[in-house]
């Protein structure tokens, strides 16, 4: 079987120009607000629905009637929307 060709090393004295230098992205310091806001929205939505059922449609907003369920699920849906910003 033939032996593979040995590659020569490139000259190590080459220094990249400053124009080609890449900027480092700091991903560790981003978006600390996302997790607390997401959990808060989930909690508000769940609490809204639970309070609605526990008070037999008197609270949180009696005038909305069964639309209170939609409002509760709306808060939960907003929590999922916010969760897409988590890195």
From TrEMBL:
Top-level taxon in the UniProt lineage: Bacteria
BP term (GO), one: cell division
Annotated region (Disordered), positions in chain: 1-23
Keyword DNA-binding recorded: no
TM region positions: 33-55, 67-86
A GO CC term attached to the entry: plasma membrane
Topology in membrane: Multi-pass membrane protein
Signal peptide annotation: none
Cellular compartment(s): Cell membrane
Compositional bias (Basic and acidic residues): 9-23
Keywords: Cell cycle, Cell division, Cell membrane, Membrane, Transmembrane, Transmembrane helix
NCBIfam families: PRK02251.2-1
Its biological purpose: Involved in cell division.
Family classification: Belongs to the CrgA family.
Name assigned to this protein: Cell division protein CrgA
Organism of this sequence: Streptomyces triticirhizae
Origin organism lineage: Bacteria, Bacillati, Actinomycetota, Actinomycetes, Kitasatosporales
Gene: crgA
